[in-house]
Design brief:
Helices cover 42% and strands 17% of the residues. The two termini are 51 Å apart. A six-stranded parallel β-sheet has the order 3-2-1-11-12-7, with helices on both faces. It has a five-stranded antiparallel β-sheet with strand order 18-17-16-19-22.
Length: 644
């Protein structure tokens, strides 16, 4: 049975970072797990989304043509996956001839079936998310990223998305597993139940894109274009010949779930093509509680991590530390802590002590014998880990495997085989054999189960156990206790996870990170110098005096006789709401602010404005034209939280 899965197609306006790696790494784990389940073929597609105004603008800043700029990024992504040893089976570029042909073919199918029409669009557009923001007003922020939208007016082709509302809701009801996890499914259902507007799928004020045949100057809107890449990679118009479509899984980040779970199935329905079987949206990787992004300057790159602690350590940390589907935090401290506690002191120590004792006490030959309690624990671990991995509950599955490792460690300490080795009576020697075999067999079982997550390290342990069967050929349905052959000679012993001294390791990773940033900036023609401060510099002590807190607007009303002022009541989790007068009336109406979370300077001395007390100041940034835009949050932040 085949299994076809995809990563997102990564946007070529910046170099790959840890967020991209997380998606691809998880897909690689699923690919390896599915092969262990016996699926054949298992095919993973990744690639690059290269069109759109954001790429065009990034290319202009770099002094390159869009195609030249994208070529550079494409090679960077390819190199990235190769160096991290997670290459895909298929790599699709949206700038490829095969993809152009597939997009144009699918458009004609939709148009022939009556689901496309020509019209005019005037509205707000976010260039950062390539998103048309329906019902937004000029200057309104993008609902996805919070940046100001731009007003565009142009002739477009429209897709009749509104006609698919009920069919989509029926899909979600009849196939409850189509969207995962449950929180994202509920989010999508609420969105569709709220009503769907027809979607503009072409643009006329952009040159960098796939042309609509016979309809110059129309080019396809990036989301109609990019989503079709999953189909282009496996044959496009000739998809039936390759036998891989429909996709069994689209693995994506949660910020693009609507495009994949609403737009994409609607496009396929309109073209009379099979739908993917599942869309699963994972959470964000947070660094210091913020999503990684170039604008925040908190990008983490995986190459420095791989060079210091190894790729398997990074794979393990991301899958063990983060509940898949939820947001999770990354830090170098936590990474090294997990490495030492779980890999060095756990799996690595079990392998080293078990194999060393077999070599020392039994001349490197696996003895015979078995402990029933550990056997039962191992059998239960096989079942629990396989079930967890099948459900994408990677952290839960790894926890089950580490419970077995801990049980075996405890078993070794309790049995104290080094004491049996000193006694030559038959009972002691039998107990020594039983302890050594049990430990080695449990290690073999754990190694098989961990192979999708720790492929390089498990291959080393497998060889040290003396196994001649390729680890990749082991199937989960045949994995059982007692398959380690007594008398088998073990291989050469070597530490798989030597302990790491945290401080120098973290310093080295940070230093390599700075070098990688410099290399990527040079690659993209970006400056690596830091701009001088726009005003007088302050110390960290000066900054610490400013008390920035999260507030929620409870009420808002215009101030009489003042066009720019609004009077707000803001909840800061204090005894009473704060009264704040803010000069944001030119940008926001009172109705837009109620319920919104904002940033407040909470320790500013109170002052009077138009007879009203303003006890604090709301934080906003001035954009072109001088109109202020409020600071906002991508994540759910509790009221009263302090900003650091």
């Amino acid at each position: 049975m085949k299994y076809y899965l995809t990563t997102p197609l990564y946007y070529t306006n910046g170099a790959p970072h840890l967020g991209h790696t997380y998606s691809t790494l998880v897909c690689d784990v699923i690919r390896r797990f599915k092969r262990m389940q016996g699926c054949d073929p298992v095919v993973l597609t990744t690639g690059t989304d290269e069109h759109g105004v954001n790429v065009e603008r990034s290319a202009q800043k770099a002094g390159k043509l869009p195609k030249e700029f994208s070529d550079t990024l494409v090679e960077e992504f390819r190199r990235h996956w190769d160096e991290l040893r997670i290459p895909a089976d298929r790599f699709i570029r949206t700038a490829s001839e095969q993809h152009y042909r597939t997009v144009q073919w699918m458009f004609e199918r939709c148009r022939k079936n009556g689901h496309v029409y020509k019209g005019k669009y005037t509205g707000q557009y976010c260039v950062f998310d390539n998103l048309y923001v329906n019902e937004a007003k000029p200057g309104d922020p993008c609902p996805e990223c919070g940046r100001p939208t731009e007003t565009v007016t142009e002739e477009n082709f429209f897709f009749k998305l509104s006609a698919f509302q009920q069919r989509l809701l029926d899909l979600y009801e009849q196939q409850p597993g189509f969207i995962g996890p449950e929180a994202r499914r509920n989010e999508v259902i609420r969105f569709v139940e709220g009503g769907l507007s027809d979607l503009s799928i072409t643009r006329t004020n952009l040159k960098w894109g796939i042309p609509v045949p016979g309809e110059s100057p129309h080019v396809f809107y990036v989301w109609f274009d990019a989503l079709i890449g999953y189909l282009s990679a496996v044959g496009g118009p000739e998809y039936e010949q390759q036998g891989l479509w429909p996709a069994d899984l689209h693995l994506i980040g949660k910020e693009i779930v609507r495009f994949h779970a609403v737009f994409w199935p609607a496009f396929l329905m309109a073209a009379d093509l099979p739908l993917p079987k599942r869309v699963f949206a994972h959470g964000w990787l947070l660094v210091e509680q913020d999503k990684m992004s170039k604008s925040r300057g908190n990008i983490v790159r995986p190459r420095p991590i791989e060079q210091v602690v190894g790729m398997d350590a990074l794979r393990y940390f991301l899958l063990r530390e983060i509940v898949f589907g939820q947001d999770g935090s990354f830090s170098y401290d936590a990474l090294v802590g997990r490495y030492n506690s779980d890999l060095a002191n756990g799996l690595g120590n079990l392998a080293s002590r078990t194999l060393t004792m077999i070599n020392q006490y039994r001349g490197g030959a696996i003895p015979a014998g078995s402990d029933d309690k550990i056997r039962q624990a191992a059998c239960e671990t096989i079942r629990a880990a396989a079930e967890a991995f099948y459900n994408f509950e990677f952290s839960k599955g790894l926890e089950a495997i580490w419970s077995l490792i801990s049980a075996v460690d405890k078993f070794i300490v309790e049995q104290s085989p080094w004491k049996f080795a000193k006694q030559q009576d038959g009972e002691s020697q039998a107990a020594l054999d039983r302890t050594l075999y049990t430990s080695a067999e449990a290690l073999r079982v754990a190694t098989v189960l961990l192979a999708p997550v720790l492929p390089e390290s498990c291959a080393k342990i497998w060889a040290q156990l003396g196994m001649t069967e390729p680890l990749e050929s082991v199937r989960l349905d045949s994995l059982a206790w007692g398959q380690l052959r007594p008398g088998q000679k073990i291989g050469q012993i070597a530490a798989v996870f030597p302990r790491i001294d945290a401080k120098p390791a973290i310093e080295k990773m940070r230093g390599l990170e700075a070098q990688e940033l410099e290399r990527q900036n040079a690659l993209l023609g970006r400056s690596t110098t830091t701009a001088s401060a726009p005003g007088p510099q302050i110390t960290i002590d000066d900054f610490a005096k400013v008390d920035l807190r999260v507030g929620q607007v409870l009420s808002a009303e215009r101030v009489k006789g003042a066009d720019k002022l609004l009077h707000l009541k803001v909840d800061l989790a204090e005894a009473e709401p704060r009264s704040i007068v803010a000069g944001i009336a030119e940008t926001y109406t009172p109705e837009q602010l109620i319920g919104r979370k904002v940033v407040i300077v909470a320790n500013l001395a109170p002052r009077k404005l138009r007879g009203l007390t303003s006890n604090g100041m709301i934080v906003a940034a001035s954009v072109e034209g001088g109109k202020p835009v409020l600071a906002s949050f991508l994540e759910d932040i509790p009221v009263g939280a302090r900003l650091k």
